[in-house]
Input
Amino acid sequence: MAKPRGMSVINRVGHRYGMLTVIGRAPNRGTGKNATAHWVCRCDCTNVVIVRGHSLQKGNDGRGGTRSCGCLTKKIQAERLTTHGMARSRIYRVWHMMRQRCNNPKSGAWETYGGRGIKVCEPWSDFETFVHDMGLPDAHMTLDRINPNGNYCKENCRWATRHEQANNRRTNRYITFNGETKTLAQWAKVTGLTVFCLRARLHRGWPTEQALTEPKIRNPHYLRNSS
Ligand SMILES: [Zn+2]
Output
């Protein structure tokens, strides 16, 4: 004869399990060998629920189980939804603005994007594909192209902090001359001048043409007499 289940039951009355305090024993569920002990519990949110003893123990041991009337799970889910929802609406704005810059000649940024031939790759005309490829950004991150002359596509894009992106932009400053747009580094190669020299000239307010075409003078004081 099996020992009646009730004899071996741990008395849980008065014990706390997460947000639940056991206030009494509930009738067993099941019969004979399958009978399981249940307990009447009050949740911190004032709900009263009946929970299986085994479930309470599991919750206490950090193995899942039950730690509230259900309000805790709902609360966590609601928080997750809000965070997720905010990130979703933010990434949607990012996606929308990216397409505007590249596809809409009336966009304020058209000249430095679509007007320069920067395109959004075909798969990214679909918002969901964009989200799938890029993942959701952290709150402080912006969409950054690794190669500033490259297109918006999975291989050339990353989420970057504003600082990282500003750095990328500084070293890749664009100069348009004779209908050609190149980075400072690219112009340096073409003109044979150094990036430092070009940057210094432009910083002094030299017109683009002069900055790019005037031969480098050995005398470092040239910077003082810019005109
Ligand atoms: Zn509750």
User: Anything to note?
Assistant: Residues 1-6 have pLDDT under 50 and may be disordered. The first strand starts at residue 16 and ends at 17. The first helix runs from residue 53 to 60. Strands lie at 16-17, 20-29, 36-43, 48-52, 141-145, 157-161, 174-177, 180-183.
